[in-house]
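Ticket #4471: structure output looks truncated?

Reporter: J.K.
Steps to reproduce: submitted the chain below (753 residues) through the standard prediction queue, then opened the result file.
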Amino acid sequence: MQNVLIKLLNGDERQGYLAGGLDPQDYGLTLWHGSGEPTETLGFADVVYVKFLDPLDTPPNFRQQDIYEKVSVLGGEHFHVRSRREDRFPLGFFAYSTNPNSPFSRLFFTVHGVMEHHHENPVGEILCAEGLLEEQDLDQALAEQKRLRQQRLGDILVEKTALPADKVEATLAASQKLPKRFINAKVGEILIEAGLVTARQVEEALASQSTNKRKRIGTILIERGLISEDQLLTALAEKFCLQVVDLSGVKPSPQALARLSREMMTRMQVLPLELRNKRLMVATSNPTDPTLIQNLHFATNCSIELVVARAAQIEEHLKQLANKPDKKIEELLDGLAAIDVQIEEEADTSRVTESDSKVINLVNKILLDAHQSGISDIHFEPGLGPLPLKIRYRKDGVCFQVHQIAAAYKAAILSRIKIMAKLDIAERRRPQSGKILIKYGTERIEYRLEVTPTIGGQEDAVLRVLSAAQIYALDQIGFSPDNLERMRRLIHKPYGMILCVGPTGSGKTTSLHSALAEINQPERKIWTAEDPVEITQEGLRQVQVFPKIGFTFEEALRSFLRADPDVIMIGEMRDVPTAKTAIGAALTGHLVFSTLHTNNAPETIVRLIEMGIDPYNFSDCMLGVLAQRLARTLCAKCKKAYVPERAEYEGLVNAYGVELFTRHSLPAYSRELKLMRANGCELCDGKGYRGRVAIHELLVNTPDIKRAIKNQARVEEIERIAIEDGMTTLRMDGIQKVFAGLTTMEQINRVAL
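Returned output as attached by the reporter:
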């Protein structure tokens, strides 16, 4: 058996012996830990690399065309290895240590475990090895490259302006004796001061110097007629095991292009072509750049698959993209009549009119566009100094930039927003919160505003669009059948406490209002205290708290208890007094709903006890804790079915838990099993996702949970008991929705651990 060390994606390591060896055509391996220990099966989907610790019986037969490369893996480790073309497989590749004293003899890297790997052979050596270039020609080209990199600006000026070399040298020498103000002057500035050259001549020389110093050896060889660009690309592609692509008949997919900004494509001279399962195919004419894959991975958060294409073809595609118009301020306002928007007073119906101007019309246009497009948040982000104001929208939980407005408008736009929210426009040092209420036609639209001072004397503004809030039936918010049945049993209890937890924007308020709508009957008096009141519902007595004047959640709750309630909903438990008062209400015959900002249901229980809540009272009053997240939903129009590979299926099983996967009767693997993947169409703007689906974790208070709370058990113990009692975790519920074809594992990983 082979002694190995296995590095997993979660950072853990496993050491043992391979039972049956490692077959790169299979989807996993079996690890034996020693006598009396059970074997462990690991899927390649969970593995970063396998390190073989025993020396090789027979050293590999390396050839000249085999490559040295530096491989960087997830977790930050780097390896200098040598690899052979025949050792590369769809799931990964074998590589061999270049250090005779290395503790390992070879490694197997999985394709998803590698962040980047670049080859350490210079371009010239590759071309010589491929027989495309003679060594003397390479030496001449290297000498030319060295000369260009060492050439001084003065030498270039002598060549381009016919200046006598002795005059240039004399002037530069004399500059050493100039007054102190010239000590840090540049060569070009000295020559201009002496009247020997013009500013334009210096600019042309600098451009020439900059261009030549950055000229690559491959470009020099092509210019000298020693090789053609096709020969260079073919040699590099062959050596680096890359594909050569003719871009003349290729149309990049919208999903791929959306991953990278036009500015970055132009700067890096790359073209995204296709996006498949978080793996982005990118065309480049310079695969030797050691930072290219790492920079692309950082910018896109995708695994990068490089292909090689002609520089001219990439440039042509980039020009076509550049010709597509971006929304500029003039275009936003072009043909746009003044929009009649009135700022609505919170308690006053009088209308406020402002003078018609570009700034007022532009802000109105942005607010209305966001409302009509189903946007949840608008971000105004001014740049430093002359940099523009960027405006980003958040939709379906993801931010994207929509406008970039000239710096001249920054202060006016931020001031206009603050005026609409009745904030102090002179205060730029402290955060401010406010609300904007506008009427457009018959529509009433509400925005919650937060202004935060940022560096450089700037202010960021973020507006939450509240107008889209609506009431959904309990069976319309994504509950699984089992969770729906358990939730309904809880909310029809006569008294007790139900908590809904999760981060901001996870749909907690929507879920609570759905629960209240289910039990909203004339015979029940329901009070709610919220900040702000995002959803209004007939039959509820709803209260807006004002902490600035001392009207807090705790104060509202105390008032409710004197107002003959049956059901109470507290928007958020922000402090211990509010929590204790709410628990007291639940213990005295009231049904209490509230929210908390915690990660999951078991953690919520431990957090409240650590805050000082009495565990005995809490265990008696708690009915259940609902944790939830919102994951992006696949576009119903363009999503496509596919048969998952065995490795992907095993990854889902392991993420769910092998035993629980079987116990919950999830589908077994077969070639008839279908999952869904994102595709992209006009309806979803080429993103492949449209809308969001909730994933839930519902912990119900059982006798075992009650004992654990009284014993102040740890999070892990409470979670274990809850799962045994029927709870599915957020991740498990998300995986069930993956098998249902509603979303993808990529989106579940974004919102749940």
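Triage note (M.O.): checked the attachment and the full token line is present. The longest strand covers residues 622-634.
Status: closed, working as intended.
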